[in-house]
Amino acid sequence: MSDFRPDERLARDSDLLTKIGLCELRLMKDSRWPWLVLVPQRPDVSEIFDLTPLDQTMLTFETVLVSEALKTVTGATKINIGALGNIVRQLHVHIIARSEGDPNWPGPVWGYGTAEPRSADETKAFAAKLLDALAP
Amino acid sequence: MSDFRPDERLARDSDLLTKIGLCELRLMKDSRWPWLVLVPQRPDVSEIFDLTPLDQTMLTFETVLVSEALKTVTGATKINIGALGNIVRQLHVHIIARSEGDPNWPGPVWGYGTAEPRSADETKAFAAKLLDALAP
Fold it and tell me: In terms of domain of life, where is this protein from (chains A, B) (predicted)?
C-alpha cells in the first residue's frame, strides 16, 4: 500500500470520504448524481484481473457494502456499477445512484455534460449520511 | 436455477456462447466492439447485493476469467466492466474490449449509435477463439 497514490485526475475530481479495508471511498464533485468511486490502494493496477484473488474478493465485498449504503441513503431506482478506465487508467470502480428522470437517464453518466459541483455544506451533509449508513 | 430465464431483450440482443458455473456467457449482436455479457442464472436478482455472498464471489471470479480471455483474444487497450440495468433490470455484467479509436472511445458504449450485427460466420469464429482462450 506504501506506493499507492490516487491518480491526479481522480483526486481533483472527487473528495476522499473514508478508507475501507482495501479502497479509498471518494465522492465525485458532481451534484447531478450521488456518485461514488472506490479506488483500491494498490500501485500499478488497471484491470480487476491485475489484483490478487484476495483483493478481488475484497473489492467485491466493498462494492456491495457501498452499493447497499448508497441505495439506503438515496432510495435510488438502480445502482450503476462500472470499471471503465479509458481515461484514468488507475483501477477505480464507479458506484452511482440512478433514478428515473435524472440527467441522461436511462443512459450512462460517463462523458455526459458538465459536472455541477456541490457546496461544501452539501458535500458534508451527504458524506455524513453515507458514512452513517456504512457504519455497522 | 430452475426459475431462471434470461430477460427477453438480453436474449434477443445477444447469442449464448456457453454457461460457466454461475452465469450464462453471451455475445452482444454488435460488431462495433467485442462485447460480452455475463448473466447470473438466478431468478429475481437486479443488484449485485441481491446475490448471496457466495454468488457474489462466483460472479467476480467469472468476470475476471472472462475479462482475461477477452483481453487475450482481442489485445484490447482496456477492458470495460459495467452493471447498469437501467433498462434491463435482470442483473447482467457487461465485459467489453475497448481500443483507442473505436466507436465513441474513450466514452462508454451504452446508448451509443446503433448495433451492427455480425454475420453467422463472424459470430462462430469469434466464439471459437474466445472459448479456446477460456479453456483451461
Answer: Bacteria
